[in-house]
C-alpha cells in the first residue's frame, strides 16, 4: 500500500469520507476551545454530565419525528440547556455546589432519556444516539456542525476576556460587579451546542471525548492560553483524520477510533510533555545558579 | 462615605454581625480588630455586596460599588492557570477597558508602574504560578493600585507574608491615605494597627468600640471584646431588638 493509498485515496475516492472529514474538522474548531475552557475552569466532568443530559431531548425528538436530525438536535439542545439552567439556578439559590447539582440533574435527565428510548425504539436506536455514525453525516448535519463552529468561535472571541478572568478570579469579578454569571451561562450554552453538533457524527457520549481529551493534553504542552488552543486544535484535528483513516482501513467504528486516538495523544502527552509530563520529571536538567 | 445602619448579618440565624451602626472615617485607614469569629470578614463581605444583610443597611454616599477594591482573605485565584503577572495586574483595568476595550499604552503603563511600585517589575512576564505567596500578595496589591479605587477593603492582607513584604505593603496603605482613599482592613497585629491605622473598629459581633485607635485599643475594651466573643449559645433565643430579629 502506498502512502497515497493509505492517506489520500480514502478521501479522494469516497464522498462519505470527505463529508466525515469536513464534519469532524469543523467540529474540532468549535469544541477544542470549549474543551480547553472547561479544563481551565476545572469543569472537565461537566462536559460529560451535559452529554448525558442531552439524551432525553434527542429521544423526544426521535419520538416525534423519527430519525430526523433537526428534531433530535433541537430536542437535545433544549434538554441540555434546561439541565444547565436548572443546575445553575439550584447552585445560586441553594447551598448545594454546582458540580453536585449538575450530577443530580444530568442523572435525572439520563434516566428519563433511557426510559423514553427503550419505551419507543429498539436498542439499535439507543446505540446510534449514544455513539453516532460519522460515516452517515449528510448535508444537514454538515451545515449544523459548521454553523455551531462559527457561532462558537464568534461568541468565544467576544466573551473571551470575562470568561478567562472569571475562571482565574471569580471573587474579583463579583467584587467589580462584572456579572460573571452571564458569561458562565453563555459558555454553558456553547458547551451544549457543541455536544449537540457532535452528536450526529460521534454520538452524545463520544463527542465529549473530542472536546476534552485534546484540551487536557494541550495543558501539558503550552505555557499560554493561545498556545494551548493551538495544541488542542492540532491534536483534535490529527485524531479526527487519523481516526477516520483507521476506521476505513481496519473497518472499525469511526467515532471510538477518533476518540481512542485522542486518548493516545493524551497518554503520550502525560509521558513526554515538557510541562508536567512524567519523563521530564524523571530526567531533570541541572539547576541554575539563581 | 460609608455608614452602617443597624446592620445584622447571620449564618443559620446566628448573627455574625449584630446590630452594628457607625460611620467609617472617609479618607482614612480604619482597622477592624477583634477575636476570631467576631464577624470581621463577614462585615467586609457585606460592605462589598457579596452577602445580603438580614436587616439594616450599608449606605454609600458619593461613591458607587464600582469604586471599591476588595482583597479577600484567601484569594480564590487559580494560580495554576497560564496567566502572566502583568496580565493579572492589568485585569484591574476592567472598569475602564471593559469587555472588548483595548488595554492601550496608557493603561499598560499604569500596570507596569504598579509592578515597579511593589518591586516586581522583573516578574512581569512570568506566570503567576512561579510566585511565592509573598510575591503574589504584592501582585494583588499592584492590581489594587491599578484599580484606582476610592474605597479599599483588605481582609487579613498580611497573613502569609514575611516582615519585609508586610512593611512594604503597609507603606502602600499609608500612601493610599495620603491620596485621600478610604482603607478598611481586617487585621490581627496590634502593632500594625497602632502604627498605620488612625481609626479602629473593635468588634465582637457587636461594636465594642469605634473611633481613634488610641481610645479604642485599651486593655479594658480588648478584654470586653474577648469576653463577648466567647459567649456563643447554640440555643440562643430570638433577638428582640427593634423587632427585626423575628423571622419565620
CATH superfamily of chain A: ABC transporter involved in vitamin B12 uptake, BtuC
Q: Are there runs of chain A of 5+ residues with pLDDT below 50, and where?
A: none
Count of separate DSSP helical elements of chain A: 14
Mind telling me the CATH class of the largest domain in chain B?
Answer: Alpha Beta
Helix percentage of chain A: over 70%
**CATH architecture descriptor of the largest domain in chain B:** 3-Layer(aba) Sandwich
Instruction: Write the CATH homologous superfamily of the largest domain in chain B.
Output: P-loop containing nucleotide triphosphate hydrolases
Strand order of the largest sheet of chain B: 5-6-7-3-8-9
> Could you please say which CATH topology of chain A applies here?
ABC transporter involved in vitamin B12 uptake, BtuC
Largest interface: A-B, 24 and 24 residues
Shape of chain A: globular
What top-tier CATH class of chain A fits best? Answer: Mainly Alpha
CATH fold naming of the largest domain in chain B:
Rossmann fold
Largest sheet of chain A: none
Global outline of chain B = globular
Which class best fits the helix and strand makeup of chain A? Answer: mainly alpha
The ordered string of helix (H) and strand (E) elements of chain B is EEEHEEHHHHEHEHEEHH
